[in-house]
C-alpha cells in the first residue's frame, strides 16, 4: 500500500497485524487508489454486491442519510451504506467487501427488528445480538474433531491457559480466528491486552485448512450467513475471547500472561 496517498485517519493502521487478515485483501485493493470512497464503490460494483433486497450496494456520505431514518433501515431500503471519514466506518465498509453475505443477513435481521419494534431506548434482544455480532464478533473456526471440541469447552469454561497457551500448536492447523466486528478492528488499531471479542463458532472439516485464504473467506461468508438465517440470534450465542491471547497475536504469551485475572477472568457461576 502506498501510505503517502492515505488520508489522516489511516495513519495508525498496521496492516501486517494478524487481526486484519480478514479484510487485508479488500484494504489493499481500496488503498491502491487515491479516493478511498470511489474505490469502495468501484469494488462493490465490480463484484456485483447487493443488499438483502437485491439492491446494488454503495457507500455514501453520512450527510446523505435522511434525517430521522435509522441507519440499518436505510441500508435495507436503498442498498446505500452511510460511511463517515473515520476508522469505524471504513472498517465497516471493508467488512462489507470481505463478507458481503454475512453483512447482508445481519442487516436484514436489524432492519426487520426496526420494522417490528421501531427505534426506542432499547434495541430488543434480537437486534442487540445482531449489533454485537456486527460490531465486535470474531469468527472462531474450529475443526470438528475431539481436540477441537475440547478446546471450545476449555474456552467456554474460561480455562485460558489450557485453551490458548497449552493448545497453541492447534492454531492455524485446526483452529483459526478471523476478526469480523468493525468496532473490534478499530480498537485494535491501538491494541491493549483487555480487548475482548464476542466469538462465534464455525465448525469445519479438516479439508477446510487446505484451502487458500480467499477460498476460506468465501466459504466462511456462505457458511455463517446460512447459520444466521437458520438461527434465532441471542446474546447467549457468544463466547468471550481476549483477542491478544490468540496464539501469535501478541508477544510474551507465557504462562504468566494468561494468569492476568484482569483480562483472563474466571467464569462466573450461574
Automatic annotation (TrEMBL):
One Pfam entry name: DUF3025
Superkingdom assignment: Bacteria
Name of the protein in its database record: DUF3025 domain-containing protein
Species whose genome carries this gene: Undibacterium nitidum
Amino acid at each position: 500500500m502506498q501510505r503517502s496517498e492515505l488520508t489522516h485517519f489511516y495513519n495508525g493502521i498496521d496492516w501486517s497485524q494478524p487481526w486484519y487478515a480478514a479484510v487485508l485483501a479488500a484494504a489493499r485493493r481500496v488503498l491502491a487508489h487515491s479516493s478511498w470512497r470511489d474505490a469502495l464503490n468501484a469494488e462493490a460494483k465490480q463484484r456485483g454486491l447487493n443488499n438483502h433486497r437485491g439492491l446494488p450496494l454503495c457507500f455514501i456520505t453520512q450527510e446523505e442519510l435522511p434525517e430521522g431514518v435509522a441507519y440499518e433501515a436505510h441500508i435495507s431500503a436503498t442498498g446505500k451504506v452511510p460511511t463517515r471519514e473515520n476508522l469505524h466506518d471504513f472498517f465497516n465498509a471493508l467488512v462489507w467487501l470481505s463478507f458481503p453475505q454475512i453483512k447482508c443477513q445481519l442487516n436484514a435481521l436489524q432492519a426487520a427488528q426496526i420494522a417490528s419494534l421501531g427505534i426506542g431506548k432499547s434495541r430488543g434482544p434480537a437486534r442487540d445480538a445482531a449489533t454485537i455480532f456486527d460490531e465486535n464478533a470474531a469468527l472462531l473456526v474450529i475443526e470438528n474433531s475431539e481436540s477441537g471440541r475440547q478446546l471450545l469447552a476449555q474456552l467456554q469454561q474460561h480455562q485460558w491457559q489450557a485453551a490458548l497457551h497449552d493448545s497453541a500448536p492447534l492454531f492455524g492447523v485446526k483452529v483459526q480466528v478471523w476478526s469480523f466486528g468493525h468496532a473490534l478492528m478499530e480498537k485494535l488499531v491501538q491494541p491493549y491486552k483487555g480487548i475482548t471479542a464476542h466469538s462465534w463458532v464455525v465448525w469445519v472439516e479438516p479439508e477446510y485448512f487446505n484451502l487458500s485464504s480467499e477460498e476460506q473467506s468465501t466459504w466462511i461468508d456462505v457458511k455463517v450467513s446460512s447459520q444466521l438465517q437458520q438461527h434465532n440470534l441471542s446474546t447467549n450465542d457468544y463466547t468471550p475471547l481476549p483477542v491478544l491471547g490468540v496464539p501469535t497475536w501478541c508477544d510474551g504469551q507465557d504462562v504468566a500472561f494468561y494468569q492476568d485475572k484482569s483480562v483472563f477472568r474466571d467464569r462466573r457461576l450461574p
